[in-house]
Amino acid sequence: MLKLIVLSSVLFSILQADSIDDVMDGFDDAPVSTSAVKKSHDLTGRLTEQLAFGYSDNSPHDNINSLKSSLLLDYEHKFENGFKFKTNAKAYYDAIYSIRGEDKYSKDELDELKSEVELYDAYIEGSLAKNLDMKLGRQVVVWGRSDTIRITDILNPLDNRRPAMVDIEDLRLPVAMAKFDYFVGDWRVTPIAILEQRFSKNPPAGSNFNPTPNRPYEESYSDVTPALSIGGEFSGWDVNLYAAKVHDDVGYLNAGKLKHDKVNMVGTAFNLLKGSWLLKSELAHFDGLKYSSTQNREFKRTDGLVGLEYNGFLDTIISYDASVRHIHSYDNRLKNSPIATQKDTYQHAFRVSSDFMNATIKGNYLLSLFGKKLDEGGFQRAWIKYDISDGIYANVGVVDYIGGSNRFDTVVDNDMIFMDISYSF
Amino acid sequence: MKAKKILFLLGVGVTLLTTNLMADEANARAIMDRVDARDDGKTLEQDMLMVLIDKNGNERTRDLKSYSKDFGADEHKTLFFKSPADVKNTAFLTYDYDDPNRDDDQWLYLPALKKVKRIPSTDKSSSFMGSDFSYFDMTDRDLEDYDFKILKETKVRGHDAWMIESKPNNQAVIDESGYKKSIAIVRKDNYMVVRAINFLTNGKKKYLDLTKIHEESGIWLVDEMTMTTKKGKQTLHKTILTFSNEKLNQPIEDGVFTTRRLEKGL
Fold first, then answer.
1. If residue A20 lies in a helix (H) or strand (E), which one and from where to where?
2. Hey, are the CB atoms on A27 and B195 less than 8 Å from each other?
3. Distance from the A51 Cα atom to the nearest Cα atom in chain B, whole angstroms
4. Chain A residues with CB inside 8 Å of B101's CB?
5. Domains of chain A
6. Strands B43-54 and A416-424, how do they pair?
7. ipTM for the complex?
């Protein structure tokens, strides 16, 4: 019996040793060799070829409706005193207008979408003192916490010409500002002077996202407007308080002109961390809003958002944001404009992003819906980003526009498949 | 009488075996305590080259600058991506708290979003920046969560070493790490884990190999290490991390570990 136990133990030890040695063979003793890293320079850029295919049979926006070549150039230089200059510009040409015949498109669409050269960032930044930073020039300043719904993020206009089709890095349009950051302990005080008044770029008249024949003349402004942010960052939570007097980005029609009168805004944003959960909230109050159907009457509106982000699944981030915009002292005439403005406008955004194959493939899904019962339209977008090799990547995706209200019923047939390939250098 | 003798011998055998096992466990734990207590410096600034190699041999490279500093028992780390161009200026800041009940604070600066974003703690078994290292691999393990056993004594690259098996003693750690057990090879002369095999719950194995190390002011630093994910004998993916321009225990301003610095970049 004892012999058997000893024999078993010896046999077990030998088997275990064999098993361990077998596993140890998995180490690769070949010398490590890798190709040299491509160093990044002051001047970098990206070449992109993009194709969009429309499902609808609404000529000329059916089949392949965009064949865009674009070049982004980015230059940054750091001076010896620590100051940094950065600028980037993007130029694109959409060949589809020449291929299909320019006479089939509205002048407004050709002017807006056929080609463009746009200066994005152009700023100089640095520290004026130990606790004081300055950033002067065209720049993007993002307020708020949500990545999908804008409540307090009001300082930069958006490129909305092809809704849901614009890459996030091209979405916000930089504005000339003088921004100062003063740091006191865990707090940051940021006064801003907005030196340039720009407004969101909307779909051109006659395009598939704006079937109206003419676009109203948009009034321009050259004044300087103030904004202030006070933010605190602490372990597990952070908070920001905002105040601004800015031109209303949406504007209202008055005597055939699109006007952007000034509004006062105060707001706050808050993050709370708990394990793999991040709770986000934003609140903004606007005073002085005007609407096309009520002309010179001024309104107050309060916008609120709560959101959750979860990072606890393998290589996956999930987020859900819900918001409501409430107009105080509501006037029933607001219902009468072509796109009715409701007393309460609800919006929901659900986003999933997941990495596969060591982040070679990134899958993304975004659902954005309006309505208290999610029944007033919106869109969903699913896309896959594939890293082909260093600096070369491709996106393939689909955008589905969902009807349910006047605003989305007019674009519901614009569903699109898009694909692009980019080379960064 | 014969039966009594056998039982007696068996009892002695089991006792000896158990005593031996307990001694082994104590020895293994003592070694791992030394590994855990090994001085890795108060501050470290270094360049880091990450090469990701897929099963077909295709390489992707990431060039980074990393800073780390001890703040008492806590550690703050900042990572800046220098290249390739499509991820340049991306930056990552983490406050890794010693208290296991306190959530780490983490922020990410994405140039595309143009804002610093607070990010909740990831699933620890998630890949660290697309590499074969997981977030769990980048954090210190709580030794109380493991049972240790010396498997045998061995040699690695000519150095005497212990081969130590560690098994999580609770399911929560298995769920968190994704590892059902690990075998570590600890060099006897410097108490450094120079090789390790992590057995994943999905049947794959991850091989950690510190291929180049050196000693500086009594502290051992890694110059190059690899992590290879395998299924059976087949390599699925491999990551090579190379460190250079290491500055150990040199002063690093606290301001490097702030969101202000993430925005400004290198």
1. helix A2-24
2. yes
3. 21
4. none
5. 42-424 (2.40.160.100)
6. unpaired
7. 0.88
Distance CA B120, CA A237 (A): 11
CB atoms within 10 A of CB A286: 22
- Residue B11, pLDDT score: 55
pLDDT, one tens digit per residue, over A395-421 is: 999 999 999 988 889 899 999 999 999
Are A44 and B132 in contact (CB < 8 Å)?
no
CB contact under 8 A, B121 and A275: yes
Parallel, antiparallel, or unpaired for β A237-247 and A225-234?
A: antiparallel
Among residues 327-386 of chain A, which lie with CB inside 8 Å of chain B? Answer: 355, 357-360
CB A148 within 8 A of CB A369: no
Flag whether pLDDT at A41 surpasses 90: no
What's the confidence (pLDDT) of residue A38?
53
- Alpha-carbon A125 to chain mean position: 23
What are the pLDDT digits (tens) for A58-86?
A: 888 889 999 999 999 999 999 999 999 99
CATH 3.90.1300.10 is right for the domain spanning B37-64+124-248: no
Residue A112: per-residue pLDDT? 93
pLDDT at position A15 over 80: no
Query: How much is the pTM?
Result: 0.87
> Nearest residue of B to residue A85 by CA position?
B264
Bond prior to B111 in cis (omega within 30° of 0): no
Q: How many CB pairs below 8 Å do chains A and B form together?
A: 170
Number of Cβ within a 10 Å radius of residue B209: 22
Coil, strand or helix at B16: helix
Say which of B13, B86, B163 has its CB closest to residue A393: B86
Let me know: does B11 contact B212? Beta carbons within 8 Å: no
Q: What is residue A167's three-state secondary structure?
A: coil
Among B117-131, B166-180, B250-264, the minimum mean pLDDT is found in B117-131
Q: Please name the residues between 149 and 208 in chain A that touch chain B, using a CB distance below 8 Å.
A: 167-169, 172, 181, 183, 188
What SS3 state is found at A423? Answer: strand
The per-residue pLDDT for A9 is: 47
Give tens-digit pLDDT for B224-265. 999 999 999 899 999 999 999 999 999 999 999 999 999 999
Task: Give pLDDT tens digits for B191-229.
Answer: 999 999 999 999 999 999 999 999 998 999 999 999 999
Instruction: For chain B, positions 227-246, list CB contacts with chain A under 8 A.
Output: 228, 230, 233, 235, 237, 240, 242
pLDDT greater than 70 at residue A347: yes
pLDDT > 90 in chain A, percent: 77
Residue A95 CA to residue A79 CA, distance in Å, equals 40
Amino acid, single-letter form, for residue B178:
G
Nearest CB neighbour to B83, from listed A38, A84, A360: A38
Amino acid at A128: L
What confidence score (pLDDT) does residue A68 get?
Answer: 96
CA dihedral A319, B86, A163, A87 (to 10 degrees): 120
Q: Going by DSSP bridges, is the β-strand pair A257-259/A217-218 parallel, antiparallel, or unpaired?
A: parallel
Q: Which amino acid is at A153?
A: D
Query: Rounded distance, CA A412 to CA A423, Å?
Result: 33
Between CA A390 and CA B83 the distance in angstroms is 10
Residue B49 — pLDDT band, cuts 50, 70, 90?
A: very high
Asked if B228 and A26 come within 8 Å (Cβ–Cβ), the reply is yes
Residue B263: closest C-alpha in chain A: A125
> Where exactly are the structural domains of chain B?
37-64+124-248
The alpha carbon of residue B228 and the mean position of all alpha carbons in its chain are separated, in whole angstroms, by 13
